[in-house]
Known about the structure:
The complex is a heterodimer.
Chain A (H helix, E strand, L loop, with lengths): L6 E10 L2 E11 L3 E6 L5 H8 L7 E6 L2 E2 L5 H7 L1 E4 L11 H6 L5 E2 L2 E2 L1 H15 L14 H13 L5 E5 L7 H16 L3 E5 L3 H7 L2 E6 L2 E7 L5 H9 L17 E10 L3 E9 L3 E6 L5 H8 L7 E6 L2 E3 L4 H6 L2 E4 L3 H4 L7 H6 L12 H14 L16 H14 L4 E5 L7 H16 L3 E5 L3 H7 L2 E6 L2 E7 L5 H8 L4
Parallel strand pairs in A: 3-10, 3-11, 6-9, 9-10, 15-20, 15-21, 18-19, 19-20
Antiparallel strand pairs in A: 1-2, 1-4, 4-5, 7-8, 11-12, 13-14, 13-16, 16-17, 21-22
Helix pairs in contact in A: 13-14
Chain B lengths: L2 H9 L1 H16 L6 H26 L7 H15 L17 H26 L3 H19 L9 H8 L1 E2 L2 E2 H19 L1 H18 L4 H27 L11 H11 L11 H20 L4 H26 L1
Antiparallel strand pairs in B: 1-2
Amino acid sequence: MSDKYILEMQDIVKEFPGVKALNGVQLKVPGTVHTLMGENGAGKSTLMKCLIGIQPVTSGKIIYKGQEVNYKNTQKALDAGISMIHQELSPVMERSVCDNVWLGREPKKGLILDHKKMYNDCVLLFKKMGLDLDPNEKMKNLTVAKMQMVEIVKAVSYDCSIVIMDEPTSALTDTEVEDLFKIIADLKKKNVAVIYISHKMDEIFRISDDISVYRDGEYIATDKAENLNQEKIIKLMVGREITDMFPKVKCKIGSTVLKVEGLCSGREVKNVSFEVHKGEILGFAGLVGAGRTETMETIFGMRRKTGGKIYKDGVEINISSPEDAIGNKISLLTEDRRGNGIVGLLSVKENTVLANLKAYGMPLNHKRMVEDTQKYIDQIRVKTPSMETPIQNLSGGNQQKVLIGRWRLTDPDVLIVDEPTRGIDVGAKAEIHEQLSQLAKQGKAIIVVSSEMPEVMGVADRIVVMHEGAVTGVVSRDEMTQELIMRYATKQV
Amino acid sequence: MSAKQKRILSDNAIWLILIVLVIIMTVANGNFFTVANLRTLLTGESIKGIMAFGMALAILTKGIDLSIGAVAALIACVTGALVQPADLATRVLSFGPIPGPLAILIGLIMGAAIGAVIGWLVAYTQIPPFIATLGAQLICRAASKMFTTRPVSNLSDSYRFLGSGDVLGIPMIIIVFLILLGATAFILTQTRFGKSLYAIGGNAQAARVAGINVELSLVKAYILCSLMGAIGGILLAGRAGSVDPANSGLSYELDAVAAATVGGTSHSGGICRISGVLCGILILGVVNNGLVLMGVDDNMTNVIKGVIIIGAVVMDMRKNVKKA
């Protein structure tokens, strides 16, 4: 029976102090594209980390090519033919693309490195994968999408029997996603098994042969992709039916809260003007690099403003730091959760109250900090063993919920959210959309920056479209179509 | 054992080590666990201990302050010179003396000013704290030697009160130590500034986005660190009754780093418990004192201290790896 599968994981249990991350989970992979699905914290990434030896399993059996294995580290797993593309990138920024690709397995001539072979092989590899990159380019000069592609090429180049891809497309643009799918098709032809983790439904149905669903560290089901559809998967994932992905509440749109006039910041933001009203959700659409994030960072004081004016409730305000912005009741949930969102070592509680410390006096009112944290843990349904748990032990979606709690706690008049649901499962996604709608109903002005067209169209009352740092169009709710937005975003109007 | 109990045990393992060390020393030498010796131990360690509190703040923000020993020497020289009797033939300054408390106040202000400069360099020019404070160390040490070539002695009693006086039989130096222990603990756990330091050490970018003034907080941290150095210097001068510009406070910064590190303060930032630092100070003090009583020679004592410091960090790293 077991030789039918290249990989079998049986009754895997993984315990962390205070949490059972995996509870008797199984996975059977024939030599095709097998997708793992589940909400954040369902245990998909943990299962993979157990497989390649980043984390030891507490109990359970892993059978690979007919033999029971238990890898102590990723090198052992790689030697056996299992490679993984991680969700969080870890390139060596100061070194070249080429050095990064061969890191840890540099070809040698005697004792010295064979630089020529490294370079030539790299060129060959890129050509084969359809990647247009100079191997001598420094890693830090690449866009995040290109870095991700390098990571993918690197993982594939090990000639492995299994390639694990953990959310490989979260940072990719559409063209690169197509390139990735070609690479996957290629791997399939060579009988390489692909284990694919993603939240994006359209992708999953395009490439998967089999789909396994997990929930809260439990195995739920496995089936052929053709037997499943979006609704069925969502139901399996969340254990209930989500009727509405974008629970849009009709709000009364009131007076102008924030008005931006001719905002400039270097070459990234050029003469951007817009206004957002009470009870309104204003969407920002555009391609990667359109300057949406940079615009928000300028408003929030993270980036130097080189021109333009910002008015709050009709009065011009001066913002030169996030501290100023928060003082003016403007909050920004940044897109880079790990880079400038969470403080990993600190607890859920400390992360929740971080932007609101001024409110707790001196000596700090610890009791109120606990109450406030508990309120948002309950309200936004954060899954955490306790509020003293370091936030780095939580799944990405739950970290994001904590950050939303952090900003709600500051009680902003203007809440800006940048890619609020990137890398987050459907259940949490709908919850976050609902949060935004609720806040708008309370009369807050909300700005949503998102690269996901259905999301921005689903939640927004109006959409500002940007292209290369400038606003190219504003679309109201009744004229919204994907085509129109796309035309503005590519400036084909 | 429940997970919570396990956590409490692992968080306080360092205190168990201290207790074991105390037991070993007591068994090995009958003179160790006596009131007189413990008093010697505590007064001996309190100056380095105070500096360790300051150092812990710097390390918490992912920094370090190598200047703290030299700052102590400079402040001790200057304030000491201000309280020498007018009829002393070898006195450094041609005016004075001024009242002891005033001299101490001047010393604290100087210390804070030095810290402000260091903090400004670290926060706004973004040069690595190691380099900024190494430079400050050289400058402060040289400045004290330029200020006076002779040891500064015959200091006034009112100035020496903090370093050598006592209240109800308790040495003032220990009282000052305990007050600063409490003050540091208060800052770290009860103030917005303290919480900001943890956030800055853990993820400076995230701290900034959360509205924390990262630069100002760093400046404040280095001011506190230099202040602890200045207080250390004043106590040092008060205890000994004289200051040697070349040798007073020499390499105290490294003892402070050692105590903070053994006490679990993480050099990758964001982790520091003041109770841990206290324990680190006591562990190194017990080892020092106990080995001297046993007649172990100086070199061997340093070897053992080295092993303890490295061992403490290895243990700490393992603990953090397991959590990740």
